Amino acid sequence: RFPLDVVFADRLGRVVRIAEAVPPSRVRLAWRGFAAIELPAGTCRAVALRHGDCLEHLDPLLRRPLRLRDR
Description:
Layout: E1 4-9, E2 15-22, E3 35-40, H1 43-46, E4 54-56, E5 67-69
């Protein structure tokens, strides 16, 4: 059990909330969130993820990392 960063995105992939270092057995919600992405604690800060950034899902067969697009 370890803390997680949780990123909430809307249907267009825009970040609507970031919950950093959420302790184990704790819940975070986002009213406008369509998807929740769990990452190791500290990841959001390390990649400078911000509210309003757009997440882009890439096909795992391409073996490319998750890309972020500016607003």
